[in-house]
Amino acid sequence: MSNVKFEHLFAPLQVGPMLVPNRICETTNTINSSMVPGEIDDNFREHHAAKARGGTGWIGSETWLLNLPFPPETPDEVGLAVGFAAHFATYQSPAFIEGWTKFCDEVHEAGAVAIAQLTHLSAVWSPSPVPVIGAQDFTPHILGDEEIEFCLNTYADAATVAKDAGADGVEIHCAHETLAYSFLSPVTNKRTDQWGGGPRERIRFVVEVLERVRKRIGNELALGIRISGKEFREGGYDNLEMREMLYYIGETGLLDFADIDVGHCWGAPSYVPSSYYGHAEFREVGKAARADLDPKIAVLFTGRINDPVIAEELIKDGYCDLVGMVRAGIADPEFANKAREGRLMEIRRCISCTRCIDEASEPMTFPYAPTCSINPVVGHELRWKEQYQPVDEPKRVVVVGGGLAGCEAARVAAMRGHQVTLLDQGKRLGGQLLIAAKAPGRDDFEDQVYFEENEMERLGVDVRLETSVDIDAIKALSAEAVVVATGSIPRVPNDVSGIDLPHVVQGWDVMQGKASTGDRVAVISQEDYYETPCVAEFLAEREKQVEVFHKSTHLGSEIARYSVAMVLSRMERCGVIVHPNLVLTQVQADGLEFVSSFGGHTYRKEGFDSVVLVYGSVPQHDLYDQLKAEGSIPQVYVAGSAWLPRFMAEATQHGASIGLVI
Ligand SMILES: Cc1cc2nc3c(=O)[nH]c(=O)nc-3n(C[C@H](O)[C@H](O)[C@H](O)COP(=O)(O)O)c2cc1C
């Protein structure tokens, strides 16, 4: 039991007419949990209401996209430009309203409040002909008066629906790359009519929205805005100008709360900050907002707060009145209750790997399901509800391999009542996670190792480390079920001559201090996610001169738009030179031969002390094959990378799924 007292975090707060039971907020996160596009289905309700039941006081769930439906003459692009529009709520559909009403009831039953976020999110039109998203290559259509009028009214119409459906508050989304943001920003609003000008003029669109919404919801619902605390954009508004705009908006008397965050949906920082950022790194914007605002207007600050201890401090030290903790609740929907009950060791802290937002914006799974790298229940809530059952007859279960898949298989099997032994040849649990955590900016990944270690102890799993395992060892444990989670080993390309020269080493070995590199290092990559930039940065941090030769069009081509800018900017900052579109064909003592990925051109590069390979990995399932062939153990499973090396989320899912069915 922890001694930390959360006196501030669990104090209720009156926000306008709404009593928020504590200060922990799930700000809106469109993780696309509904499996019926545009509706609020059981998956949605189970995903978000679980957080309310887990003690989160404010449930922002998913945004209401107002783009759809538009007048018939509007081009399709306005609705579709957000890419995943079909999954966002379409607030005029009766099924959506019915689903939302049911959802609000569930949130209220759990003692929390439900907030509806109203959003116009389409970068194809804007106040001025300036790309809304920095990385876009087209000029948006300039909004005419009728179109502005149409948009203003949709906020009011949607707010009426939210009120009727039982929401406690309405939030107008004025941050990120929304339409309201593009009116607030001096970069995207160059208008010289009544909608543009200085800070006092650029707020006009937002004030107009608030007035129309307030007319519909009266004083029965809380009303607020989400606003970026400062723009990290050439010519964008800073913290001072945000304060000024917020002050003017607050002066109207229309605001009950201001929800402040920082970042863009494309660029660094992203508004879903990865582990490369400090915890609550941009907290100053919360304090800045509070400086001028009427104290009756509650300030909510969000951004990489994964720990209730940090959240408590932010409130105590005056950075904000309410704390946004979105991914904290994705990783562990019960974290708030655990904190209140002093069970801090049981909290599975978000490691800020950004898989959730990456998946939501550029799906990696098919068919799509929301995912979390460390919480296997996300996206499978209904299945867990049905399948997660204590066992009638506990079995002796042996899990071989203590990486994510093995740990999750052991944890879930033990939670269900099995008697579990977990064997690993390493000194510590964690497997590949321990390697990843050595990369700069990835130390939070180790939190998941602590979580698994604590859970094994709490659940009475018999963990045996530095143990090598064969069939006899498993039989000696009288195993009735075995999970082989023996992971993978780095891939060595078999079509490259000279690959066995002594100066060729593996990225994993370098990260673990098992191989040295000299000062001039060529990293050769056929891996498109985080591993290559992590290895390169690890070396650069040790003052090596690093050049990456990469098969794809750019490094990290599988990292989604929210996160990739940060990764690439870190490469620049630490001086890593990246050569795309090259495949290694030959290693010689004094040089490397490449062929272009897309043409037939060959290239030669010289001047490296070592060659570091990042080619992904190959599964290790010999033990599984042997156990299956031997046939004496009734249940034998293969899990995680031993089945197929993929990402953390897949390993977690696979291991936990096996734990569910043993
Ligand atoms: C999957 C996902 C979807 C999100 N969608 C929205 C959204 O629709 N509207 C919004 O204002 N913020 C959205 N956010 C941002 C969150 O509200 C929050 O500001 C962000 O996750 C940082 O908080 P955290 O560090 O506590 O996760 C989203 C975040 C995630 C992870």
Molecular structure report:
Helices cover 34% and strands 18% of the residues. It contains 23 helices and 28 strands. A hairpin with a 2-residue loop joins strand 23 and strand 24. Helix 1 runs parallel beside helix 3 and helix 4 runs parallel beside helix 7.
Tell me the fraction of residues in β-strands, as a range: 15-25%
Structural class: alpha/beta
Spell out the CATH superfamily of the largest domain. Answer: Aldolase class I
CATH class of the largest domain: Alpha Beta
CA-based shape? globular
Rounded to the nearest angstrom, the distance between the terminal CA atoms is 31 Å
Strand order of the largest sheet: 3-4-6-9-10-11-12-13
Radius of gyration: 26 Å
Counting DSSP H or I runs of 4 or more residues, the number of helices is 23
| CATH architecture identity of the largest domain | Alpha-Beta Barrel
Number of spatially distinct domains: 3
Contiguous uncertain segments of 5+ residues: 81-86
CATH topology of the largest domain: TIM Barrel
What level of helicity do the residues show?
A: 25-40%
